Amino acid sequence: MELENSLKIAHKLADVSGEIITKYFRQAHVKTQTKEGMVSSIVTLADLEAEAAMVEILRQEAPQDGVIREEGEDIASDSGRYWVLDPIDGTSSFAKGFPIFGTLIGLVEGDTDKTLLGIVNQPILRERWTGVVGRKTLLNQVILTNPYNLESDSQLQDACLNATTPLMFITERQRLISHHLQQVCKRQAFGGDCYNYMALASGWGAMPLVILESDLKYYDFCAIIPIIEGTGGCITDWQGKPLNRDSTEVLATSNRVLLEQALSVIANL
Amino acid sequence: MELENSLKIAHKLADVSGEIITKYFRQAHVKTQTKEGMVSSIVTLADLEAEAAMVEILRQEAPQDGVIREEGEDIASDSGRYWVLDPIDGTSSFAKGFPIFGTLIGLVEGDTDKTLLGIVNQPILRERWTGVVGRKTLLNQVILTNPYNLESDSQLQDACLNATTPLMFITERQRLISHHLQQVCKRQAFGGDCYNYMALASGWGAMPLVILESDLKYYDFCAIIPIIEGTGGCITDWQGKPLNRDSTEVLATSNRVLLEQALSVIANL
Lengths: 269, 269
Known about the structure:
five-stranded mixed sheet, homodimer, D-Maltodextrin-Binding Protein, domain 2, 2 domains, 8 helices, alpha+beta
């Protein structure tokens, strides 16, 4: 019952942030008044306004819950639960006018870091993924079927490896692991941010997907966890352990067979 | 008059290829009969069918023109003009279910390698860019205004640098140039294929764009040239020279000031 109410609030957050973000999408503001120039300003405006609007709703409708967010200060929790917000995941895509960014809204249990529900909202294409712990994932209220979920003969060789940017691999070891998986997988693609994870969850691919990323923040993946797990996909850290608020390395695969193979590549390096 | 007729044919090619590609988009075929497995097959099917349908139309409606294409053999020209076709530019995006790939259709004058007209068609989002030499570029029949076109105080520092993948920088010198421009530009994004160029042409960006790519084929950029030039944007090789069928290194910028700055960075390395 409490979860149903939270879910209702989460959809409201997605609605309201989506309206604000849509207003700023593909609006090149060549000259603005801000000191830092136009470059960051339009992105910052959309980011800040969308986040502020979401926090305002939460303060009214779930004042007992805390907030962990990208742009502003965290808000402590009385209920032990936290909302984890990223108004625009995929800033470069948004800034270029590519409709493959997303608003990430997660609700976590503070003592276990378990994500109770997650929404990824793409307001331009009107795609909204909803994951609730223990339930099947919905895309626009329709249950997703992931055709790669139960494939017992999946092979890394046939998968497409994804990362938003190679610049996220900071340490020597991260670069080694990324490079080695690149050699094993048939295809490697960059860009994508949260949309890579949504493609994986949705089973859109002409091939199974593997996503290997590092240098992430909690708000970059928290909402994504129940969405992927609710389709039979896998999302863990690079050791196969559950993600928590301190995780920065994320590995996601279309199914468990691919996860085991990827973990084995990593373990053997 | 002849150009008007060619333009009509070009739109027909975009219509027909778009229908075929849409049919295969986001259709994960987990198991197919082909020997190579499902991985490449769905992409190959969409690619081959779309290209074959376009070539069939050309053989009927412009039998005097030659064809340079991604998938099949080239066809010689009697008129001196060549159609340059890439049914799916952005194969990884298509294969993942991202609607940011495009069908590239160019018509060139064989003796000068001048692109007379170019279309980039994104069938899922129903976006079609049309560039004709000497005319202003259209997006869905509306003239594009590029807000960065006449900015005389543009700075590389404020621009977003783009490349589809860092793996396209093969030589030591290419990697050096890419790395150095990365240091100068404020933001660097990967992924995008033809959609980067269309974002640049459309002036969607919250910031001006620079695209630096190498390891390209003629069909990857031929159709893009009049689209970008018809908005006041720039597209040349890495020395600032006009592109031709043997070019593999492409540099595109939102305006001429940025082009000069980028060329100067390259020349000083």
